[in-house]
Amino acid sequence: MANSQDHSRIHSLILQAKEGDEEARDELLKCCRNYVNVIARTNVETWMRAKVDASDLVQQTMLEAYRGFQDFEGTSEAEWLGWLKQILAHNTQDFIRKFRAAKRDVKREVRMQPQSPNESAPGINLSAQLQSPSQFMIQNEREFELADAIAQLSEDYQEVIQLRNLQRLPFDEVAERMGRSRGAVQMLWARALKQLQESLSLSGED
What we know:
Largest sheet: none
Structural class: mainly alpha
Order of helices and strands: HHHHHHHHHH
Helix content: 55-70%
């Protein structure tokens, strides 16, 4: 199965990088960029209910992971994902705080979800969040593969999956955010999910 091979590859890259192999470290970070991007975008858009450019957040997280790799003490893929999520969560809080401050400075209010000052930005588990009407679930070890598959979809497909599956918005709100009818959004979502599942199934057969 490709997911087992990918899992072994990530583990191997971690071990090589920890031994000082800079090429392995670069490849490891490259492998997880789509993963960080999907989670970062979902986090900030869920929290702020606005489409924002999370590229700076992704860049900062990847840079900190690169510079601080020697601080990573684990060896497994799960530990690696957890470490990345910790860095991302910290940067997400800074991103949200700066975004709100900038909006206040120009006296433009942004409607946000109710959240207490001490509450953390939401964490996203791609495998746990993505599911079809038939409760199709992706196993945790396919996190990277799932993020890569989402990144390869068209922009509209990516957006409808972000809004419906990852942010868990009702179809009426997804339709409003995308400027389409509810029926059009439901059809778009079904096609997007089908393409995503086909892509994952094909990669699993390699």
